[in-house]
Amino acid sequence: MKKTVTILFLCLVAFGTQAQHFRPDAFPPQEEPLAPKSLTMATTLDEMYQWNRYPTYGVYLEMMNHFVETYPDLCHLDTIGTSVNGRLILSLVIVGTATTDIVRPNFFYSSTIHGDELTGFYFMLRLCDTLLSSYGSSTDITNLLDRVNVYINPLANPDGTYLNDDNTVANSIRYNARMVDLNRNYPNPFGADPLDDIQPETQAMIDYANLHHFVMSANLHGGSEVMNYPWDSFTSSERPHEQSDWWKAVCQRFVDTCRLYNQRAYRSVNREGYIAGGDWYVIYNGRQDYFNYYHNTLELTMEVSNTKKLPTEQLSRYWNFQSHSLINYIKEVLNAPQPSHVEVAPCLPANFRVYPNPTRGKVTIETPEDIRTLDLTNQPSGLYLFRIEGQPVKILKL
Ligand SMILES: [Zn+2]
User: Fold this and answer.
1) Where residue 3 falls among pLDDT bands split at 50, 70, 90?
2) Whether 321 contacts 261, CB under 8 Å
3) Which one has a higher pLDDT value, 187 or 393?
4) Which residues contact 30 (CB under 8 A, 6 or more apart)?
5) Position with higher pLDDT, 304 vs 393
6) Are residues 273 and 251 in contact, defined by beta-carbon separation less than 8 angstroms?
7) Least C-beta-crowded within 10 Å: which of 66, 101, 153, 305?
8) What is the whole-number distance in angstroms between the Cα of residue 181 and the centre of ligand 1?
9) Rounded CA separation 319/390 (Å)
10) CA 287 to centroid of ligand 1, rounded, Å
């Protein structure tokens, strides 16, 4: 029997009842409501390329697609999933054109899981542009992109950023559309209580991590300036991360390079500019610990600006003192310590078949139980993730 595949981002949506644990970044005491002029919006791509504004949701989508149109040999766009309100969670995949037999590690940057922490969103768009436009002219960046597959998700919580309005970030909030904190929404390691309210944005990210093995990643936030390395669920004396020494060295390099350009950078939490998460504030169900524990991904939490909704006139200054560190952090993946156990999820469960190549038209997915039809005719190209019979399935539409 044939039937249409059900897209499985329909997850359990009951609100959680467990206690919430907030970092200080939930309540930056100095933050005042900003005058509208401080959050100037780019309403065209040309305005966005002046790099002194935040994009409207439409300009954000336009820019991500523009990268692919301008650099088709260097990048493609994945759709990680969709938000509660149907906005896209996108990832730009940047891969250099050099042919090599060496397996390139996958590196992942993701920002703004808290929808009102806007600086990283801007950073990631500017980083995409810098990497792509420098390939072939900068030896440093060319070598990097020829050795590492770089995945960049600028906006993990689009409903929180564009609350009720695609044309402004002034209303942005921490939570998703169901008022759930997405960085308290991941399965917690070490046998903690299971979650019963995993949100569509979280499930999509879990599926994306299942389908790629990210060796190293970072999740960008705002509200402080500090590099927060694992674990978040424990203090370092209770349970140090097995790579604590490596993390400290990576963080030290990041902060030192920022301070070459701005001596006052990364001083809001402590003198070092980095800290084991639990020593700052213990939280549970964050993405960092989930990625480290369940995926062997070396992920840390970057708090990149003391002000969450950084005024647009300050964006370029922040970029200028952190951009070198952000690029250097990607390079760290080439010397990342090997975890003792790595699990790589296949694109398809072994007993599933998909045909034909889903460039256009309908796709047939054959499982041991069923034959299903999926129609991507009117959908844009990119990666689509589904669950069929409980198994993650990846379809790349070219
Ligand atoms: Zn945050």
Assistant:
1) very low
2) yes
3) 187
4) 306
5) 304
6) yes
7) 101
8) 9
9) 42
10) 11
Q: How far is the CA of 158 from the centre of ligand 1 (A)?
A: 14
For the chain, the average pLDDT equals: 84
Residue of higher predicted confidence among 71 and 20? 71
240: which 2 tokens?
């140090």
Q: Which candidate, 117, 113, 111, 110, places its Cα nearest to that of 172?
A: 117
Beta strands in the chain (DSSP E): 2-4, 41-42, 54-55, 75-82, 88-94, 106-111, 149-153, 214-221, 224-229, 274-276, 298-305, 353-355, 362-366, 371-375, 382-388, 391-397
Question: What pLDDT, on a 0 to 100 scale, did the predictor assign at position 2?
Answer: 36
pTM for the structure as a whole: 0.79
Give pLDDT, residue 376.
64
C-alpha 349 to ligand 1 mean position (Å): 35
- Look at the block and give the residue holding tokens 């542009």: 129
Domains by residue range for the chain, with CATH: 24-335 (3.40.630.10), 346-397 (no CATH)
CA distances from 272 to 23, 41, 281 (A): 19, 35, 16
Cis amide prior to 380 (ω within 30 degrees): no
Q: How far is the CA of 285 from the centre of ligand 1 (A)?
A: 13
CA 72 – ligand 1 centroid, Å: 33
Which of 187-191, 211-215, 220-224 bottoms out in mean pLDDT, i.e. has the lowest? 187-191
Rounded to an integer, what distance in angstroms lies between the CA atom of residue 48 and that of residue 60?
9
- Check residue 24 and report its DSSP letter: G
Q: How far is CA 337 from CA 11, 199, 217, in A?
A: 35, 32, 13
Amino acid letter, residue 363 = V
Rounded to 5°, the CA angle 330-336-337 comes to 165
Dihedral (CA of 135, 394, 213, 289) sign: positive
Give the strand pairing for 75-82 and 88-94.
Answer: antiparallel
Confidence (pLDDT) at 331 = 97
Measured in Å, residue 361 CA sits from the centre of ligand 1 at: 41
* pLDDT tens digits along 29-88: 444 555 545 999 999 999 999 999 999 999 999 999 999 999 999 999 999 999 999 999
Asked whether 54 and 42 are in contact (CB, 8 A), the reply is: yes
